[in-house]
Specification:
Elements (H helix, E strand, L loop, with lengths): L2 H23 L11 E11 L5 E2 L3 H10 L12 E5 L10 E6 L2 E6 L2 H14 L13 E10 L5 E7 L7 H12 L5 E5 L1 E2 L2 E2 L8 H4 L3 E2 L16 E2 L4 H13 L3 E8 L4 H6 L29 H16 L4 E5 L6 H5 L1 H9 L5 H18 L3 E5 L13 E4 L3 H9 L3 E4 L2 H4 L20 H5 L10 H5 L1 E8 L4 H4 L6 H6 L2 H10 L7 H18 L15 E2 L3 E5 L8 H6 L7 E2 L9 E10 L2 E6 L13 E6 L6 E5 L4 E6 L3 E8 L10 E2 L3 E4 L2
Parallel strand pairs: 2-3, 3-5, 7-8, 7-18, 8-13, 13-14, 14-15, 15-16, 16-17, 17-18
Antiparallel strand pairs: 1-6, 4-5, 4-6, 9-10, 11-12, 19-29, 20-22, 21-28, 22-27, 23-26, 23-29, 24-25, 24-27
Helix pairs in contact: 4-6, 8-11
Bound molecules: acetamide and zinc ion.
The site of acetamide has 4 residues, from loops.
Length: 669
C-alpha cells in the first residue's frame, strides 16, 4: 500500500470515528411526531429557575405557564422566546425552533404553528415537564428544527353517545391529543343510545334523549336495562370545551348522525321517523326504528333549529352530518318516502339518502358551515361534491371517494379504529381485525393504490374511538379510552404530520419507547409492553346447557356445550323476566373461576340485561351468588358445584335477540 492511500484510509477511519463519536454524543430526541428537518449540534441551553421566557401571545402564554410556572413572562430581554411570525414563509401550522447555548427561539407561522413549536420545545425537556409545575434546572440540547404538517387534518374521533364522558374527561383527552399535534376532535354527539348536546329550543332532546335504561323510553341496547344511564353537555359547557380546544390548536367538529343512528331522537319525537308498522314482538314490544323520514317536511324545520344552535356553539367551518349505516328498509316501507323516491326517478335508496343529506347541507350552509359525511353518503352518486368524506368502511370506500372527487379523511377501520383490540386476547372489538400500533403506523397511500390525483384529495387521517365497550370497562378500567387511544394516536399523528418518505416503523417504535416516559408523566394510561395474559388455565369440563328461550338454530345448544363457538348462539327473541339459562356439569366443578357472559364477548350487546346468577351443589337447590352487570358476571367456585343458573329479572334488552355463550372456566392459581 502506498503511503498516500494509507493516509486516505487513516483519514477515513478518523472521520468515521469522529462521526460515530458525534453520533453517540448527540442524544436521541425521540420526537413524536417526527419533524421534517432536525439538525442537532453539540452544546446545550441551561434552563434554570432564573430563566425567563417571553411569549407575547396571551393564550399560549397561559397554556405554557401550566407546564413551566417559574417563567417571568413579561421580560422582553428573555433568552427564551415563543412568538408568532407570519413572515417566516412557512406553510400553515409550521414553525421554526432554534435552541442555541445562549438562546431559544420558537416562531410559528400562525397560532397553531407557535403552539406546535412550543410542543416540540416541551418534548426537549425531561418528561417531568408534563407533570406541571416544573422547576428543576435542566439542559436542552442544541438543535435547529424546521417543521410543518404534511396534511391539514389530523383527527381523533370520540364517541360520547354510547358512553358519556364528563367535560373534565374530554378536556383531558383533548390536552393529550394536542401534545401530539392532533388538530381535529370529531365529536360524535348523537347516536341510537343517546343525544348529548343541549338544544335550547328543544329541551326534551336532552331531558329525555340523553338517558337510557330505567324509566327512559330509550332502552339500553348496551349495558344494563334496569339502570338509568346517560348525561349531556350544556351549551355553556360545550363553549368551554371549544375554547379549551382552541387554546390547544384543536378544532372540534360536532357530529349529529343522520338520517340513521337516530333511535334516541326518535324516542323523543317519534313523528320524525317513517310511519311504518313493525312487528316488535321479538324485541318484547320495543320499537327500534331509527331512521328519519325523508318526505316529512317538518323534519327539516327541526333540523334547522338543531343546526342553527349547533353552529352557534361550534365555530368549526365543518359540521358532521352522519350518513352511515342507514336502515333503508324503513324508507321502502314508508308510503311517503317511496312516493318521493318514485317522483324523483331514483333507482337506488342511496340516492334518497343523498337527497336527505343534500337538504341538510342546505341547512348548514345557511349557518356558514360545510358538511362532513361518512362514506356511505356518496353511494347514490348525487351527494354534493362540497362534502368532506370520512372513509371508514375499509380502504375501497376511501379510494372511491377520492376517485369521485371528494376531499377525504382516511380512517378505514382496519387501520384506524381504536375500538378494535390491540392484541388477539385483550378487550376490544375485532370485526375489523386486530389493530396494533404497528398496523396503524404501516398505513401507506401508495401501497393502497392511490393515484397522485387521489392523494391530492386526501385531507388527512383520523383515529376513531367508538365507545360501546368503554361502558363495560367501567368502573374497573376507567382509563380504557386512554388505553385504546395511546399510543395508536401517536401513529396517526405521525402519519398525518410527517412525510411518508421520512416514516419508518422501526425508528418510530424506538422513538415511542422514549415518548412513553412523556405519556407516563402526562398521566396517560397508554398501552405498552406485552398483552396481558389471562389469569389461570382455561378448562372445558363436560356440560349441558339448556334455556327457556327459543334458539334460532335448534342444534345450537349442543354445539355450545362443546365450547365450540366464540361468537355465541342466537335466540329467536329477546329475554323476558323469568327466562333462565342452565349449565349442568357432568362432574362437579370446584376451585375455579367462572366467567359468564351473555351478548357478544367484549361488547355488552345482545345481553341478558338484568339477572342473577345462582349455583347448586346438588343440581336441585340453588343459591344466589351474583348479579349480572352489563350482561356478565364472574364468580368463584370454592365447593363442588353441579350447576349454574342465570335467571333473568327484566324483560327486554333493546334488541331482538340474546347471544348465549359458553362459560369460560379457569382453574384457580
Ligand atoms: C361507523 O363506524 N359506523 C362510521
Ligand atoms: Zn318516510
Amino acid at each position: 500500500m502506498k503511503s498516500s492511500s494509507l493516509r486516505v484510509v487513516l483519514t477515513a477511519l478518523l472521520l468515521c470515528s469522529a462521526f460515530v463519536a458525534e453520533a453517540t454524543a448527540v442524544p436521541s430526541l425521540d420526537l413524536v411526531p417526527l419533524p421534517r428537518k432536525v439538525e442537532q449540534s453539540e452544546g446545550e441551553f441551561r434552563f434554570t429557575s432564573a430563566t425567563t421566557v417571553y411569549c407575547p401571545v396571551p393564550q399560549l402564554r397561559a397554556y405554557l405557564a401550566d407546564y413551566l410556572p417559574t417563567f417571568a413572562w413579561r421580560s422582553v430581554r428573555s433568552r427564551v422566546e415563543v412568538r408568532i411570525n407570519p413572515s417566516l414563509g412557512l406553510p400553515k401550522e409550521g414553525y421554526r425552533l432554534s435552541v442555541q447555548s445562549d438562546k431559544v427561539l420558537v416562531e410559528g407561522a400562525d397560532y397553531a404553528g407557535a403552539f406546535y413549536g412550543a410542543q416540540t420545545l416541551l418534548q426537549l425537556f425531561p418528561p417531568q415537564v408534563y407533570e406541571g409545575d416544573f422547576r428543576s434546572p435542566c439542559a436542552l440540547p442544541c438543535v435547529e428544527i424546521t417543521d410543518w404538517p404534511e396534511y391539514p387534518y389530523r383527527g381523533q374521533h370520540l364517541d360520547v353517545a354510547r358512553t358519556f364522558m364528563s367535560v373534565e374527561e374530554v378536556k383531558e383527552y383533548i390536552s393529550h391529543l394536542a401534545c401530539h399535534k392532533i388538530n381535529r376532535l370529531h365529536f360524535h354527539l348523537t347516536d341510537d343510545q343517546g343525544w348529548r348536546v343541549e338544544i335550547a329550543s328543544h329541551p326534551e332532546l336532552t331531558s329525555v334523549g340523553a338517558w337510557r335504561g330505567g324509566d327512559s323510553p330509550i332502552w339500553a341496547v348496551y349495558g344494563s336495562l334496569d339502570k338509568k344511564y346517560g348525561g349531556y353537555y350544556t351549551q355553556d359547557e360545550l363553549r368551554e370545551l371549544v375554547a379549551w380546544a382552541a387554546q390547544r390548536a384543536i378544532t372540534i367538529i360536532p357530529e349529529v348522525d343522520l338520517p340513521g343512528h337516530s333511535l334516541a331522537i326518535g324516542k323523543v319525537y317519534p313523528e320524525v321517523l317513517c310511519p311504518v308498522e313493525r312487528d316488535n314482538s321479538r324485541a318484547a314490544g320495543y320499537d327500534r326504528r331509527n331512521v328519519w323520514c325523508v318526505a316529512r317536511e317538518e323534519n327539516y324545520a327541526l333540523l334547522d333549529d338543531i343546526f342553527r344552535e349547533l353552529s352557534d356553539i361550534f365555530p368549526s367551518e365543518w359540521i358532521h352530518i352522519g350518513g352511515d349505516e342507514v336502515g333503508m328498509s324503513q324508507w321502502k316501507e314508508c308510503p311517503h318516502c317511496s312516493a318521493l323516491y318514485k317522483q324523483n326517478g331514483y333507482t337506488d335508496y342511496a340516492q334518497l339518502e343523498a337527497h336527505f343529506l343534500n337538504r341538510v347541507v342546505e341547512i348548514v350552509a345557511r349557518y356558514g358551515k360545510r358538511p362532513v359525511v361518512w362514506n356511505e353518503a356518496i353511494n347514490g352518486g348525487n351527494l354534493t361534491r362540497e362534502a368532506l368524506v370520512c372513509g371508514w368502511d375499509g380502504i375501497k370506500p376511501c379510494r372511491k371517494s377520492t376517485a369521485e372527487g371528494y376531499r377525504t379523511v382516511i380512517m378505514p377501520a382496519q387501520w384506524f379504529y381504536f375500538d378494535m383490540r390491540q392484541a388477539p386476547h385483550e378487550m376490544g372489538h375485532n370485526w375489523a381485525g386486530v389493530v396494533s400500533t404497528e398496523k396503524c403506523y404501516s398505513f401507506n397511500l401508495d401501497e393502497q393504490g392511490f393515484s397522485p390525483e387521489q392523494k391530492a384529495l386526501v385531507e388527512g387521517f383520523e383515529g376513531a374511538f367508538w365507545s360501546e365497550i368503554h361502558l363495560s370497562a367501567r368502573p374497573h378500567f376507567e382509563s380504557y379510552v386512554e388505553y385504546m387511544t395511546f399510543p395508536r394516536v401517536c401513529a396517526v399523528a405521525e402519519i398525518g404530520w410527517t412525510p411518508q418518505q421520512l416514516r419508518k416503523w422501526s425508528e418510530f417504535e424506538a422513538r415511542l419507547k422514549g415518548h412513553a416516559g412523556r405519556m407516563d408523566a402526562m398521566g396517560i394510561d397508554h398501552r405498552s409492553g406485552p398483552a396481558p395474559k389471562p389469569a389461570g388455565k382455561v378448562i372445558t369440563p363436560k356440560m349441558a346447557m339448556t334455556t327457556s328461550m327459543p334458539m334460532s338454530k335448534e342444534e345450537a345448544l349442543g354445539k355450545l356445550s362443546a365450547y365450540a363457538n366464540d361468537w355465541g348462539y342466537t335466540t329467536k327473541r329477546t329475554c323476558h323476566e323469568g327466562d333462565w339459562v342452565l349449565w349442568e356439569f357432568a362432574q362437579p366443578i370446584d376451585n375455579v373461576g367462572v366467567e359468564l357472559t351473555t351478548g357478544y364477548r367484549h361488547v355488552p350487546r345482545g345481553v341478558v340485561s338484568a339477572g342473577v346468577i345462582e349455583v347448586s351443589t346438588n343440581g336441585k337447590d340453588f343459591r344466589r351468588v351474583a348479579d349480572l352487570n352489563n350482561g356478565s358476571a364472574t364468580i368463584r367456585i370454592n365447593r363442588p358445584t353441579k350447576a349454574i343458573r342465570l335467571r333473568c329479572t327484566a324483560t327486554g334488552n333493546g334488541d331482538t335477540f340474546v347471544l348465549l355463550q359458553y362459560p369460560v372456566i379457569r382453574k384457580n392459581n
